[in-house]
Specification:
Largest interface: A-B, 112 and 112 residues
Largest sheet of chain A: 7 strands, mixed
EC number (chains A, B): 2.6.1.83
Shape of chain A: globular
Protein name (chains A, B): Aldolase
GO molecular function (chains A, B): L,L-diaminopimelate aminotransferase activity
Oligomer: homodimer
Keywords (chains A, B): Aminotransferase, Pyridoxal phosphate, Transferase
Number of helices of chain A: 14
Number of strands of chain A: 13
Cofactor (chains A, B): pyridoxal 5'-phosphate
Order of helices and strands of chain A: HHHEHHEHEHEEHEEHEHHHEEHEEEH
Structural class of chain A: alpha/beta
CATH architecture of the largest domain in chain A: 3-Layer(aba) Sandwich
Chain lengths: ~450, ~450
């Protein structure tokens, strides 16, 4: 049984220092011209470099140190399997048709093509009363989260799960909704952190959750891989109703749910009046590099003055965005066709099988791993340890990239996140290497 | 000679009313559930619906009224000619390769591929000292303008040309940099409007321009089609240096310049320390539906505290964006190849010939038309008239869509903007119809 990782090597002390201070030092040379424009104080509040570029940087450093090592990435959650032929062909045909007089198209509707909006509504929101006109096609969920922050503005109070994908918090800091970070806890003032850990079945104690305007909620959760149950989501909607809050529900991994838990917040009665849903083709159809997602804003969702949120979101989309690439939209539509959807769901199954292999691996090491059943992520507990140390040690000993849990919030400090995206042979090799830690 | 348009039909009074007030009325039904979330007050400041969706709406209404009319759009500046084969094929091949094990790619760098960044630097900024690492690939200039506003934040003061493409002002309002709109003038408080009209060769009187943190400047200007001269841009850079301001220079139409005027702000000595440049493949390569652009942030550009703007912009790109579609990037790279660039520039020439035809047409009508030489836009003066009335009358009498100048700011109220994008036969037919106004 695995007992402990020896923290024998030097931590990369400088890596987590904000680049700010380093670079500012360099520029204290009085001869360098500076504008008289003040740096945005909200940008100054951001504490660390953005998590995933940071991990890429560490991977590059490791590759330099061990030029012959075969690094396996179980880090950034990035799809690895080729697109189904029907999807790739549809994009190829669409792209090629742009060279013909009859096939050429210029600007599309900022909100996305009607066909695609309708197909999204029918595929993912059947019998939930969501119309195509309430679906806004985007270039990805992360981009839409920032556009939602522009929509909301700096006066909103927000709640987030802890741990959580960092884009919600970072975009909240940038738009000016937060105070400074509290040293020690690493938490920003004016954000309500909803602790989600195994003791509470990865759901917050809502009796202790302060009222906020916006509640960001991601299910299946990134990083924990936990899919909220019917009962949990009913509680969440009830909380929003009682508090008059708006839920921003991130369902980017919903197609990985196979245990019968809800795949959309709109499966919960009453949710259309209190929730926006953000989602993506990235992990459904392998579109991480193609870039396509969507956001649902129901017409029934109203601000306190009765003004429909959808009208303002439409204005944001028309002013700050110009539509997703038409080629990507053609691919999205193909992936929702009968043949296409079957094909992309078989890729989802493939990644779910990877997750099973990894779950068994960590269990064989005597480690507790959560998630991995309804999600392509495992959340592995290393009690009493520091997640960046665990990240470093796994990398040093096995040449495997993971993600340190503390990158997702204070509640992640004893965890690492492991992705199930990968070629099967790499997952199997990673499994062997991890098991060898025991030897 | 053309003397006057009779304003004989009813203006569409309601169309310019903010949807806000209409819909709010509808929702005063007390039985409708409302959240307790306040509408973002900055969104409430936006006065009108976004210009181009509004024009699309009017076009749809006209088509309904005259179902047999062949409407010709000289309105939204949207490319119409098929992509060069080399460009479309590169995207088709790239898209298809995503269905192969060796060709599949997931997430790319948020900043764009190194190859493309390098190609942009070498094609457009040769001998200006701009490196690929200072080029950030995006999904379009409009999107990057909003990301720049997130970067700057609500405390910045801004200046804009008047008239100007509305995205700068609208995104400034949304991010909270402005006060309310002044009824009558239609101008927002806290924005410095730099009047650019024929009397001053479409360049502001800088001696009367108040100091602002940010100066948005678009050249060739959309809508006037004026390309700023060397002398004008030298004055602009000098102003930024004296005031410690940052210029955000929009060069989306720069490839249309053929009179020797600068195509980049970085042609002006010293500009790298005071300017960001935003640009796009939309009007270079016909990518309005493909979605690809870029922003240059030179390393030398520093905030007052010495912190490099590029570091914060990089953080914005990593947090609020996830890279342009890899397929679009493949197309962008192909369009900058030797064969590709020659092909796309022949399309630029095609549109410039359209502009010549339209210039002659308006001149034959005795109207003064500006632009059209270094830009795909004409800015046509109708002295003493109201631009929405002119828009309506041209539409009613000729079934031609234009853009009312007042949509670009108060200085545009006697103008319409006419685009030179279009199939040649449509441009010729539009020319005939316009000439018939004389008969």
């Amino acid at each position: 049984m695995y007992t402990s990782l020896a923290f024998s090597f030097m931590p990369y002390k400088t890596i987590l220092s904000p680049r700010a201070s380093i670079t500012t030092q360099d520029n204290k040379n009085a001869t360098v011209y500076r504008t008289k424009v003040s740096r945005n104080p909200t940008m100054e509040k951001l504490q660390y470099n953005y998590l995933f570029p940071e991990i890429s940087e560490r991977e590059a450093q490791h590759a330099k140190k061990y030029p012959n090592a075969k690094i396996i990435s179980l880090g950034i959650g990035d799809t690895t399997e080729p697109l189904p032929d029907v999807v790739a062909s549809s994009m190829a045909n669409y792209a090629y048709s742009l060279s013909t007089r009859t096939g050429y198209r210029g600007y599309g509707a900022e909100q996305g093509s009607k066909d695609l909006r309708k197909a999204i509504a029918e595929t993912f929101y059947k019998d939930m009363g969501i119309q195509g006109a309430e679906v806004f096609v985007s270039d990805g969920a992360q981009c839409d989260i920032s556009r939602l922050q522009m929509l909301f503005g700096s006066n909103m109070s927000i709640a987030v799960q802890d741990p959580i994908f960092p884009a919600y918090i970072d975009s909240s800091v940038i738009i000016g909704q937060t105070g400074d970070v509290e040293q020690g806890s690493g938490r920003y003032q004016n954000i309500e952190y909803m602790r989600c850990d195994p003791h509470h079945n990865f759901f917050p104690d809502l009796s202790k959750t302060a009222r906020t305007d916006i509640i960001f909620f991601c299910s299946p959760n990134n990083p924990t891989g936990h899919a909220a149950s019917w009962e949990q989501l009913e509680q969440l909607v009830k909380l929003a109703q009682e508090n008059g809050s708006i839920i921003v529900y991130d369902s980017a991994y919903a197609v990985y749910i196979t245990d019968g838990s809800p795949r959309s917040i709109y499966e919960i009665p009453g949710a259309k009046k209190v929730a926006i849903e953000v989602s993506s083709f990235s992990k459904i159809a392998g579109f991480t590099g193609v870039r396509l997602g969507w956001t649902v804003v129901p017409k029934e969702l109203l601000y306190s003055n009765g003004f429909p949120v959808i009208n303002d979101f439409n204005r944001i989309i028309c002013t700050c965005f110009n539509g997703a690439s038409r080629i990507a939209q053609a691919g999205g539509l193909a992936s929702l066709s009968s043949e296409g959807f079957k094909s992309v769901m078989s890729l989802v199954d493939y990644y779910k099988s990877n997750a099973e292999i990894l779950l068994e691996t960590f269990e064989s090491l005597g480690l507790k791993a959560y998630g991995g059943v309804n999600a392509p992520y495992l959340w592995v507990h290393f009690p009493g340890s520091n997640s960046w140390d665990v990240f470093n040690e796994i990398l040093e000993k096995t040449h495997i990239i993971t993600v340190p849990g503390s990158g997702f919030g204070p509640a992640g400090k004893e965890y690492i996140r492991v992705t199930a995206f990968g070629h099967r042979e790499n997952i199997l090799e990673a499994s062997d290497r991890l098991r060898s830690l025991l030897l």
